[in-house]
Amino acid sequence: MFRFFSNKISIQSKLTVLVLFATTTAAVVVGWIAFDLGKRSLTAKVADQLNATRVTRGAEVENYLKLYCNQVQTLTESDNIVEYMREFRQSFEELQSHAISQQQRETLLEYYRQKVIPQLAKHMEGKPLPEQMLPATEAGQYLQYAFLSQNAHAPSEQDRLETPVDTSNYGIIHAHNHAKVASLVDHLEYYDFMLVDADTTNVVYSFRKEIDFGAKLNDGLLSRTKLCQAIERLRRNRDKYSVELIDFESYRPSLGRPAAFVASPIFDGVDMIGVLVLQMPVEQINDLLTNKTDWRAAGLGSTGEALLVGDDYLLRSESRFQIESPERLLLALQKNGLSQRELDRIKHFKTLIMNTPIHTEAVENARLGRSGFGEMVDYRGNSVLISYGSLNVGDLDWNIVAKIDVDEAYQPIYRLGRYLLITITCIGMCVCLLTTFASARLLQPLNRIMDGVHRVADGSVDVEVPVVGNDEFAQLAVAFNDMAQKLGHNKDLLQQKILQNDQLLISMLPQPAVQRLKHGLRQEPDLFPSVSLLWIELQGCETLSEDRSDQQNLLIYSELIDALDELAEASGVEKVGSSWGNYVAVCGLSEERVDHLHRLADYACEVICMVHRFNLQHETDLEARLGLSTGPVVGALVGRSRFVYELWGTTAIQCHRFATSGSKSTIRVTADTYEQLRDVASVQDVLEVVVTPMSIDPPIQSAAA
């Protein structure tokens, strides 16, 4: 991947990607740090708020229950309450001898069959018989017949009956005192007000007129209730100042609804004559936990709530979601695995109190006496931030939690995350555009240099790029200009060298051979139909002077050859080669000439004269024998690395033979050649005509090229 990135894209793209990567990485790191710090700060803030809510609501519940207990204790010391207890107790005992008729009993049983047992059967285990639920005493059955079965008011308003149809002493006392108790209950917002005989546990008075009215609490189905157990403790202790705070339970007389009580003994002097039982209103506890259903004002937003949970994992206060959206709550509980029976109880009683087990990590920790804060899963299966702890409320093992959904709690930080993402994206786009523009401007000098490189590669050498500034690109431009200038100079030198080589080849070889050699073509023999060839044999070269060294003799010989070359060039004659006292010249080979024979004859005469002068100048004794012939010859390059251009044919053979067999300072020619030179007066004295044809000798060779 890195190799592809390095090799496949341009520098401008690499620079853009690199800057974009660096900028985006920095922005992402800064954004992540900001997001993380923001989340930590927000979590700490939510923790403080939920902890404060938990502590505050918990303290309010503790104070409320303590106030409730104090009220009960104060009421039991009231003369009016003592008087009520005395009167109802006495009148209840009077009814023990007042047996109800069979018809009245059947009417009461029918009341149980129609209005009580069907409601209990829906949401409580088992299906008790009506006979099992009747009060154990005659007085109790009579009171239920008179105040329940004969009550014309709705079941929830049976407390409105003050005077029953009978005219017993109990009915008179009830009519006299019930309105006073009703005023007290309404003022102090109790749910129920009951008076229990301390000796018999008979409920001699009940404000609500539920089926515990007239019942004997330590007998039958009611003997297993927490209320009965608390009254038994009060009867055993007989402490005037003791108060029993009785936890919630599913209470049969309230048709299975959750009920909690406060009980305290009533003393008449030193005698314990009864127990005052107040049934706590669930609504008041809910108001404390829900801020009277105004959760937003309490800083709990749309999903926050505070809940009381007992040691049995059951709720002791109402869920916010049961109040606001019960149907959605039921769906969430069903999805979270709550049984259908429990869902039916919630639907029937319209409450989660004592109906929904809360087996969560927060409740487990609170039951162990721990308090803390964390992110956990609540009873709906949602992730929440939750604060948990226990309450100090008498013998009640209650715990309190305050929580809010994670999605709502972290909504500000999620919004910040979206803003950061949008910002980083915008930064990346701006950086990409700016980097593209800046890199294009930055790389302009490099692009000009690259353009110059391409022009040089295409063959131009007169290339110069402008030098702007004094940075690395400017230095590179200067170096490029120097290189281009040197390349131009070297090209000129090369052209000159090529021209010199061409001229050298042209001077040494015929034009056809030169063209084939330059183009790398295969060498083939060249036919020259009419040339003149001169062979000069210099005798005496091997012994130029015995008084000189070999080096000196070689220098003298070289001087002689140079003189012959200069004379040949001045005469328009081409040198074919020289070696060991032999010098071969030709005319009309490389360049066609009409007078090639006359030129070469004049050159031959000049050679004789020049050798004579050379002898005089250097005190040598050289003799020149010359053979001159004209006619067709064949020439070709022979060899590869060190080639030789050879001339072949009768003309060449005759020329060589003439020189090797002639007299000194003479030019031997054939009769035909002589006839062509008859009119040239300058050569008449040195010409020697050969009449007999020559035998064939080896070809004439030029010097190695």
Automatic annotation (TrEMBL):
Domain Guanylate cyclase: 532-659
Pfam families assigned: Guanylate_cyc, HAMP
Coiled-coil regions listed: none
Residue ranges constituting the HAMP domain according to the UniProt record: 440-492
CDD domains: CHD, HAMP
PROSITE patterns hit by this protein: GUANYLATE_CYCLASE_2, HAMP
Signal peptide from the UniProt entry: none
Domain of life of the native organism: Bacteria
Keywords, ordered alphabetically: Membrane, Transmembrane, Transmembrane helix
Name by which UniProt lists this protein: HAMP domain-containing protein
